């Protein structure tokens, strides 16, 4: 979108200029609309699971803005004549299962003939204008909490190479299909000032988006990171998706890594996640309580992985 002039509006609270998880448009004093769209090509073989994962991923950006998703529309590209139409149906059914779980209404959609299969959703949600969680609202001393373990991209690479057990593929499929709904509901009861969801740029790429422009830095405690244990093994074997290298190259200049941090951990920090967890920034004194409340709610993990640094240097340190 670089170089294009995009007209604004007094009611636009979050738009393209801020590069946040979703757009936000104010309707009244106490109501704003969140809008987002996301779709992709299959990342798992099973069509129903793919539908679930794509839907969970698309819904996630509304949760990451502090909002509640309300309506959704299907977006489908389908190779008619090449794939059986029952596959189309299974994908839609998988997506619908997650739309229902989210308490969202499916109001429509659009499908086109496409060489490559694609599925996703456009999602609309509500948020109070004073409760929008943008990325860059950081204060020194706050803590970072992550709600899904890292290494999803590496495991998916191993799945494609035929190197995983059916049990592991299944476990990671379920992790990707897990909605960030519960995590977002718990988050609403705590002094969280910023939030994003961890997806294609990896944990550090998304944390960098929070740090740059915030006036603060961040510190990651590598020993506290929740990692999918098999992903650590695959990373040690050098099974790293190409996206991880791109993510690293893009943000290298603001990241300082202690030489003692294991190489596999660093690789996982840049690993592109599909439908990853929420990365929350909470006041330091409330971090333990939020982590406990998330764990009680049964979210995949509730790890306090680091903190916000003062001093005005917009850098990320990994120890
Ligand atoms: Co996002
Ligand atoms: Co997105």
What is the rounded Rg?
19 Å
Bound molecules: cobalt (II) ion
Number of helices: 10
Q: Can you tell me the residue ranges where pLDDT is under 50 for at least 5 consecutive residues?
A: none
What is the element string, with H for helices and E for strands? EEEHEHEEEHHHEHEHHEHEHEE
- What is the CA-CA span between the terminal residues? 36 Å
How many beta-strand segments?
13
Characteristics of this structure?
six-stranded mixed sheet; 10 helices; globular; 319 residues; seven-stranded mixed sheet; binds cobalt (II) ion; 34% helix; alpha+beta; single chain
Task: Walk me through this protein's architecture.
The model has no long low-confidence stretch (mean pLDDT about 95). This protein is of the alpha+beta class and about 325 residues long. Helix content is about 35%, strand content about 25%. α5 runs antiparallel to α10 (about 285-295). It has helices spanning about 45-65, 85-100, 150-160, 165-175, 180-185, 200-210, 230-235, 240-250, 265-270, 285-295, and strands spanning about 10-15, 25-30, 30-40, 70-80, 105-115, 120-125, 145, 190-195, 215-220, 255, 280, 305-310, 315-319. β2 (about 25-30) and β3 form a beta hairpin. The protein is globular. The strands form 2 sheets. The protein has a 7-stranded mixed β-sheet, with helices on both faces. It is built from 10 helices and 13 strands. It binds cobalt (II) ion (2 copies).
List the helices and strands and how they pair.
Blueprint lengths: L11 E3 L8 E6 L2 E10 L6 H18 L3 E11 L6 H17 L3 E9 L4 E10 L15 E4 L5 H9 L5 H12 L3 H7 L4 E6 L4 H10 L5 E4 L8 H8 L5 H10 L3 E3 L5 H8 L7 E5 L4 H11 L5 E7 L6 E3 L1
Parallel strand pairs: 4-5, 9-13, 10-13
Antiparallel strand pairs: 1-2, 2-3, 3-6, 4-6, 7-11, 7-12, 8-11, 9-12
Helix pairs in contact: 1-2, 1-4, 3-4, 3-7, 5-10, 6-8, 7-9, 8-9
